[in-house]
Target: Molybdopterin-binding protein
Amino acid sequence: MITAGIITVNDKGYKEEDDYRGRIIKRYLENRGYQILKYKILKSNQVDLENEMKYMSDKLKVNLILTTGGIACRPTDIVPEATKNVIMKEVSGIAEGIRYYNLQMSKNVMLSRGVSGIRGETLIVNLPENPKYLISSLDFALETIEYGVEMVINKIKDCVI
Model:
């Protein structure tokens, strides 16, 4: 069973019952047998976001952290910077694949700055905030993300890429 943490970044400071994006991810993962160890909604504050990702990775030992929101070009969009400060290895192919896939629906996806990477035994992936792109990203990338989690936690010793 894969364990996960979910972080929604939103300047409006939604409560969990109002956070449709986080609930989409939560429902999506639970329907696939994931155990959600923590679900957090944060305002756009880089230090708080970095601390939460470190907590989920280092203390809770989740296998996967998915973030939603804060990856565009607005002044308050700090999720990629926070993620880069937390990860130890970048896994750029996940973010590139998600962007490429969603680019088929809108050219504005070129403005997405999401990143992906590894901290310890945790894979961290930034997802879009728009529900349409969020769901399509999960549909497109989750199988590969799961394979990546297995590699990170060393269940796959020999892989061919």
The mean pLDDT is 93. The longest strand covers residues 35-42. The CA atoms of residues 129 and 138 lie 12 Å apart.
